[in-house]
Amino acid sequence: MKRHTIQTYITNLLTAFFLISAPLSFANSATDTIKVADKVFPQHEVFDAVIEAIHHSTVSSRISSEVVEVNYDVNDIVPKGAVIIKFRDEEYQARVAQMQASLLADDAQIKETLARQKEASSENKRIKNLHKRKLTSQAALDSANANLSAANAKVLAVKAQRKAHKAQLSEAIVQLSYTEIVAPYTGVVTERFIELGEMASPGQALITGVSLEQLRAIVKVPQYLLATIQSSNSPVLNLPDGRKISGTKVTIVPQANIYNHSFKVRVDLPVGTENLYPGLFTKLHFTTGEEHIRAIPQSAIVQRSEVSGIYIQSKEKVISFRQIRLGRHLSNDQREVLAGLSVGEHVLLNPLKAAQQLKLNNSGTQL
């Protein structure tokens, strides 16, 4: 009996020593708590989005001619104004030269007709003066008037001819410009449909390209959420690599799909966004207001297999483990709690040391 009393005394002494010395090193951190409350967070509507290029085009031929140059291929970066494809242009160059020569001839002819007009005008004035003084016949006056009218008509005809030749020259220059396919914007070639030496025909597709500098996200919004989206703040695009990109402009196409009654919404992205390509699947978040959410720090949550739980400290400073049901990941490393936690309860912030404290308390209770 005496021996049992001594052993009990020694055991209690060691337990007290352990409770005094060992837990004191983490007592403060083990008992740090946070009071559960419903916090205000931005309310979001999330949609699946697809990236689309604002500038996406397929260039076609406007003339029938042979391809003599192909300067870019698939995946090549093409600067704005660069010549992508060149056609044989000798025929069009000759047409331009012919019209330029016609204009030079018209200029010379205009000078000649103007001189004849001036001569006919002077002769007409002289004959009129003579006729007033009864020094010439009426026939001579009529002939002078006819000559002046003919000279005036000749000037008008030559000027009209020059105007027509000038229009033909402009047309020839335009036709000549069609022999070079010029990039309308800086972009990347995605497809090429013609080879060197082939004969192109009007309307034939030649090459396709997209601009990676100006992109937008496309989403389909249900009809019942349209008013909410129209009043939302700047949307945020969440990329697979973790980046968040704010949209610059929201455009709602004012026509619903007749099959699912959804609206197409386009969100322009900042110019020059890197590592973003058309066809990429992403998530687009619209901030539509505020909501009250019961949330706790993610670091206070314990994951045991498929069970999520936390350590609770009661008013009597008793620590216990409780299973909870979790919801969304929130900002500032917060996590939504859907069930298992009430407002006003105290959650221990250091689950590891809280577990050690609970185990130690249980051991002391058994002793």
Report on this model:
With 367 residues, the protein is of the alpha+beta class. It folds into 4 domains: 25-40 and 292-366, conserved putative lor/sdh protein from methanococcus maripaludis s2 fold; 46-55 and 212-289, Elongation Factor Tu (Ef-tu), domain 3 (Beta Barrel); 59-87 and 179-210, Beta Barrel (OB fold (Dihydrolipoamide Acetyltransferase, E2P)); 89-178. The protein has 6 helices and 22 strands. The strands form 4 sheets. Strands 2, 11, 12, 13, 14, 15, 16, 20 and 21 form a 9-stranded antiparallel sheet that branches. β12 (236-238) and β13 form a beta hairpin. α3 packs antiparallel against α4 (138-177). The longest helix has 43 residues, at 90-132.
Summarize the entry for a quick read.
It contains six helices and 22 strands.
Give keywords.
367 residues; alpha+beta; conserved putative lor/sdh protein from methanococcus maripaludis s2 fold; Elongation Factor Tu (Ef-tu), domain 3; OB fold (Dihydrolipoamide Acetyltransferase, E2P); 4 domains; nine-stranded antiparallel sheet; five-stranded antiparallel sheet; 22 strands
- Name of the top-level CATH class of the largest domain: Mainly Beta
Strand content: 35-45%
Helix content bin:
25-40%
The appropriate CATH architecture of the largest domain is Beta Barrel
- Strands, total number: 22
End-to-end separation: 18 Å
Tally of individual domains: 4
Largest sheet: 9 strands, antiparallel
Taking all Cα atoms into account, the compactness measure Rg is: 44 Å
Predict the CATH topology of the largest domain: conserved putative lor/sdh protein from methanococcus maripaludis s2 fold
Poorly predicted spans? 1-29
H/E topology pattern: HHEEEEEEHHEEEEEHEEEEEEEEEEEH
Shape: elongated
Structural class: alpha+beta
Q: Number of DSSP helices? A: 6
Mean of pLDDT: 85
